[in-house]
Amino acid sequence: MWLGRALPSARSWICLVVLLVGSIGYVRVDADFRIDAYYWLLLWYAFFTFDTVYVKHICDTVKMTNWSRVYYANLMASVPLLVVLPVLGEHARVWTLKWSLPGGAALALSCVLGVAMSHASYLLREAVSATLFTIVGIICKVVTVIINVMIWDKHASPAGIGFLLLW
């Protein structure tokens, strides 16, 4: 309605219902259920949904190079950071950190990988639908859950992982 597109098809509505069932099922079997954690999840979901659809709309309608999108998005993300740092008093802590070569190298590598991921993400967003982009993201999340299960013992129960697989 807002972006000049038709409502989802019956097949898409069924998929959305399956996702909802998976989400509700996961919450029902979550041993560490805390409602405040799910408030943050709902807030994230609202922003994620808006971001996915709106960024695809921008990629389709605003003519920019991929690198321009990357720089623009990272610049926009820096503005809240520059506001929050002084408000929380973290700016003083940044200047007193003792940097080592391995620590600086890890930070630099993290920045390079973040920009590379952003670049790849915008290339993918431009090439595929918002839905397919979301599916790729969900597959990446499933892979991280599998890695988490193999490494740590603080993870969802088998029933919880089963409901995650519905996502």
Automatic annotation (TrEMBL):
<keyword id="KW-1133">Transmembrane helix</keyword>
<feature type="transmembrane region" description="Helical">
    <location>
        <begin position="37"/>
        <end position="58"/>
    </location>
</feature>
<feature type="transmembrane region" description="Helical">
    <location>
        <begin position="101"/>
        <end position="124"/>
    </location>
</feature>
<feature type="transmembrane region" description="Helical">
    <location>
        <begin position="70"/>
        <end position="89"/>
    </location>
</feature>
<dbReference type="GO" id="GO:0016020">
    <property type="term" value="C:membrane"/>
</dbReference>
<keyword id="KW-0472">Membrane</keyword>
<feature type="transmembrane region" description="Helical">
    <location>
        <begin position="131"/>
        <end position="152"/>
    </location>
</feature>
<feature type="transmembrane region" description="Helical">
    <location>
        <begin position="12"/>
        <end position="31"/>
    </location>
</feature>
<keyword id="KW-0812">Transmembrane</keyword>
<protein>
    <submittedName>
        <fullName>Uncharacterized protein</fullName>
    </submittedName>
</protein>
<dbReference type="InterPro" id="IPR050186">
    <property type="entry name" value="TPT_transporter"/>
</dbReference>
